[in-house]
Amino acid sequence: xxxxxxxxxxxEAIESLREEGYLLDFNIESDHIVYNSGRFGIDDFEIKxxxxxxxxxxxxxxxxxxxxxxxxxxxxxxxxxxxxxxDTLSERILKKxxxxxxxxxxxxxxxxxx
Length: 114
Description:
Blueprint: H1 10-19, E1 24-25, E2 27-29, E3 32-35, E4 38-41, E5 45-53, E6 63-70, E7 75-81, H2 91-98
Parallel strand pairs: 1-7
Antiparallel strand pairs: 2-3, 3-4, 5-6, 6-7
C-alpha cells in the first residue's frame, strides 16, 4: 500500500477530502452516522481514510478526521475530538471508529501482487 500524505492540520485534511468528493458533514448519534437529511446504521458505511492529530500539550486539541462512504455511495467527513463523545456513543460505533477497515494514513489502494 502506498502511504497517503498526512496533512499538517485538520483544515488541510478536510479541504483535500472535499476535493476528493467527501462533501457531506457527518455527525454521530448512538449507533448511527447522521447528516442533514438522513442517517446510516453501523453496517451501512465504511471508513475509507483516517487522519489523527494530537495536541502538543492539551488533550483537548486531539482530533480525528474520518473519510466515510455509505453503502449507497454517499461520501462525507466526520471530525471527532478524542474522548468527548465516549459517554454518548454505543460500544459498536466506538469499535468501528477505533478500528478502521485499513491502517490510518494509508490509501485504500490494493497492494501490487508479486
